[in-house]
Amino acid sequence: MIAAVGVVVPARDEAxxxxxxxxxxxxxxxxxxxxxxxxxxxVADRCTDDTAARARSLAEVVxxxxxxxxGEIRDLGCSTALxxxxxxxxxxxxxxxxxxxxxxxxxxxxxRARHGWxxxxxxxxxxxxxxxxxxxxxRYREIVNTKENVYGANLAxxxxxxxxxxxxxxxxxxxxxxxxxxxxxxxxxxxxxxGTVVHTSARLAGRAPEGLSSLLRRLAxxx
Length: 223
Known about the structure:
Number of domains: 1
Helix content: 25-40%
Structural class: alpha/beta
Number of helices: 8
Order of helices and strands: EHEHEHEEHEEHEHHEEH
Oligomer: single chain
Strand content: 15-25%
Strand order of the largest sheet: 3-2-1-4-8-6-9
Radius of gyration: 16 Å
Number of strands: 10
CATH superfamily: Spore Coat Polysaccharide Biosynthesis Protein SpsA, Chain A
C-alpha cells in the first residue's frame, strides 16, 4: 500500500507564481491521512530571479545551473523526493510552478493508486482568459476533455512503475507523454480521472519547448 507521496515541481524563473503553487500543494496534502509520509521538492532550474528563495519556506529546493532537459529536471526532482522518504511504496505527484492544484488533487491521485492504478492524469484547466478568444477556448476545452491527454502539471505515477520504465528520461519536450506511453506499453495500468483537476497559467511564453504555451499560441493564431 502507498505509504508516502513525493511532489515534484520544476521551476524556472517562476518567482511570481511559485508561492501560490506551493500553498495549493500544501492545502491538498493536508487532506491525506496524517500517517502519510510526504515531501515537496522544487527543482529551481537555472533561475535568474528569487524563485528558490521564495520556495524554501514551503518546500525542499534543489537548485541547478547545469543545462538539463525537462525530462532530466523532473527525474532530478523525483530522485530527490525518493531519497528523502523512508517508505518503500511511494506515489510521485508532478505539477508545475505556474499551476495551482485542486484541494482534492493529492487525495484523488492517492485513491486511484490504492485501487491498483500505476499512473493517473487529469485535466489542466486554464486560469484566466484563453488567448485567441472564444474559438480558441472551445478548441482547448475539446483537447482537455480528450481521453488521456497527459499533462506534466497533473500527473501521478507509482515509484516502482516509474523506475521500471526508466523515469521521464532525457527528453527535451513531451516528457509526460513519453513516460505515459512507455508505462502503457509495459502493461501498467494507466488512466484519466476527470475530477482530479489543476488550474494552470494561460501564458503564451512558457519555459518548456513545445509545451502548453506553444499549444495556446497555435490556437490563438488559428483564431
